Amino acid sequence: MNIVVCVKYVPDATADRQFESDNTVDRVGVDGLLSELDEYAVEQALQLKEKAGGEGTTVTALTVGPEKAVDAVRKALQMGADQGIHVVDDAIAGSDAPATSLVLAKAVEKAGADAKVDLVVCGMSSTDADMSVVPAMLAERLNLPQVTLASVIETQGDQVRVKRDGDTATEVIGATMPLVLSVTDQSGEARYPSFKGIMAAKKKPLETWSLADLGVDAGQVGLSVAWTEVAETTARPPRTAGEIVKDEDGSGATALAEFLAAKKFI
After folding, report:
1. Model pTM?
2. CA dist., res. 210 & res. 222, Å (int)
3. What local confidence, expressed as pLDDT, does residue 130 receive?
4. In what side-by-side order are the strands of the sheet with 2-6?
5. What is the Cα–Cα distance from 234 to 173, expressed in whole angstroms?
6. Cα(34)–Cα(26) distance, rounded to whole angstroms?
7. In sequence order, which residues have a C-beta less than 8 Å from that of residue 141 and are 6 or more positions away?
8. Which residues, 6+ apart, have CB-to-CB distance to 148 below 8 Å?
């Protein structure tokens, strides 16, 4: 089985995130990491490999992003992925979901040139843009069926069955590989890289591809052809001192209730 996991390098939510002068997210001047939601995708791909016995199953971590985005692939390799692919090209900067799905689709096709890709696994969303549309777009470009937002995944041969939890009901969906699968953060806690895994990752193959390697015209990607853009940003206002409610004379409860009512919290 040939599995490709799409992973994304995102700004660290605990860091001081900011925008570039063109209102695109700064992915170079801030600390970044493998998107937490994509860790679940890596975990499920590794579990499928282990279920298959490991022999003859390859898990490839694929990312699109700037130079530092290779760290997302390295994390996936440390978790247990067999090989990595990093698509990096200056022309990609500012790409939106349609352009990103195009690059990913071409990379998946190239990755499956020698052995067809049976399964493309994605996280349910990225933790920066939080759009949840790339898996569907990727499936359309690859002309593959999609099974999205899976919380439980079961496989038998080339058959995949998943459970999808909705707001009012739970669905059980079956499909036949090859297909595109996205998993939620309820699919199972992602493993931590072991020391052995960290050391082994240094020897695993990691390829770097450009748009030219994929046969993608630079005019098809980037901010200039994006369907969406950020028109304006405003810095978060500094935090102000809170209001302390004292209860020296027994009026604290009333004062607290009045404060909450004024803020329309109650």
Report:
1. 0.85
2. 14
3. 80
4. 146-150, 179-183, 119-123, 2-6, 58-64, 83-87, 206-209
5. 43
6. 15
7. 101, 102, 105
8. 124, 135, 136, 164, 180, 181, 182
Peptide bond into 178 cis (omega under 30): yes
CA distances from 43 to 5, 78, 167, 213, 234 (A): 10, 12, 25, 29, 37
Per-residue H/E/C for 178-201 = CEEEEECCCCCCCCCCCHHHHHHH
- 10-residue mean pLDDT series, the chain (266 residues): 95 76 75 93 96 88 95 97 97 93 98 93 89 94 96 94 92 95 95 95 97 96 88 82 81 87 88
Q: Do 112 and 127 touch, CB atoms closer than 8 A? A: no
Residues sharing a CB contact under 8 Å with residue 158, sequence separation 6 or more, in sequence order = 118, 176, 177
Q: What is the C-alpha separation between 262 and 266, in angstroms, rounded?
A: 8
Could you tell me how far CA 129 lies from the centroid of its own chain? Answer: 10
Work out whether strand 119-123 and strand 179-183 pair parallel, antiparallel, or are unpaired: parallel
d(CA 40, CA 151): 10
Two tokens at 185? 């953060």
Which residues have CB under 8 Å from 50's CB, separation 6+? Answer: none
